[in-house]
Amino acid sequence: MTISHALAGTTLTTGHGTENDFVLVPDPDGALTIAPEDVRAVCDRHAGVGADGILRVVRSREITAGAEVLRESPEAEWFMDYRNADGSYAEMCGNGIRVFVHYLRAAGLVDLPDGESVVVGTRGGARRVTREGEQYTVDMGTWWLPGGARAAAEGHDVVVEIPGLDGPRGGLRVAVPNPHTVVALPDEASLGTAHLTLDGPLAPTYEPVPPEGTNLELVVPLGEGVQDGAPVGTVRMRVLERGVGETRSCGTGTCAAALAVRTWGGTGSPNLWRVLVPGGEVRVRVEPDTDGGERVFLTGPAELTADVVLR
Ligand SMILES: N[C@@H](CCC[C@H](N)C(=O)O)C(=O)O
């Protein structure tokens, strides 16, 4: 690992949300310029610290994307500057933002009593995060189907070839707001046989190719039940993340998975979902928005694991 002088000597913190893991880089005054190769070096699991991505902790006023967020949400003091392990930027990270808020609390940068919330800037806009005991609920904002009503009616708008599975599958694109493609599989056995890798001959192919890339979720709907008097659906999921590879969880991906299965289920499909991932379990809730659309909420845990000083 070669860490540039920009990060050498910095104390970083590692953490995860359902085992989707991150390195937090404190940079409150926006003094750091982190090159893509620095991100790759830190995230390298063999020669670096090892993580699915980094979360730079910076004040919104210190970063151009944060200044835009502040115009809409002046209370968003802190900005989650998320980078995938390959150094690329993404609009939003649903697991990362819970870990980010947990870090803000642990570092004494916010006071967040149980039941209260904090607004955090992201490249996808401002997001309100509410503490619920040891868990956090994120208002992930509005969601949409890039393929529109036609994709909803047909149930898919892209054809995906996934090595390890027998033949092409229909995928439904979901924006939350980062891009996802959700593919349904009939059973958990086929979920296990799929190859999920970003590069080389075993990488999935898409027709049409998503212009901004995509995260890919393979889902197996596991049925519906009732919880506290409300219908709740359950989904098992594996995910191949854009800019990372297969991860043990993806928060925006769990939202996309629940939203796709709910779309396929049609009217009367639950608004509450349990999504089971290799790294644990999260909950996804859908509510009507004031403008006629819908908002999606993600609830799950966050952990901090270590402080690391880079040499
Ligand atoms: N793991 C994240 C999503 C991170 C961004 C994604 N790889 C992308 O490029 O869109 C999550 O928990 O949502």
UniProtKB/TrEMBL annotation:
Record localization: Cytoplasm
Signal peptide limits: none
Pfam family, one: DAP_epimerase
Gene Ontology MF terms in the entry: diaminopimelate epimerase activity
Enzyme Commission code: 5.1.1.7
Chief location: cytoplasm
Active site: 93, 250
Annotated site residues (Could be important to modulate the pK values of the two catalytic cysteine residues) in this chain: 180, 241
Enzyme class: isomerase
Pathway(s) where this gene product acts: Amino-acid biosynthesis; L-lysine biosynthesis via DAP pathway; DL-2,6-diaminopimelate from LL-2,6-diaminopimelate: step 1/1
Annotated keywords: Amino-acid biosynthesis, Cytoplasm, Isomerase, Lysine biosynthesis
Residues reported to bind substrate: 20, 84, 94-95, 178, 215, 241-242, 251-252
Catalytic activity: (2S,6S)-2,6-diaminopimelate = meso-2,6-diaminopimelate
NCBIfam families per the UniProt record, alphabetical: DapF (TIGR00652)
Family: Belongs to the diaminopimelate epimerase family.
PANTHER family according to UniProt: DIAMINOPIMELATE EPIMERASE, DIAMINOPIMELATE EPIMERASE, CHLOROPLASTIC
Function text: Catalyzes the stereoinversion of LL-2,6-diaminopimelate (L,L-DAP) to meso-diaminopimelate (meso-DAP), a precursor of L-lysine and an essential component of the bacterial peptidoglycan.
Subunit details: Homodimer.
Name under which the protein is recorded: Diaminopimelate epimerase
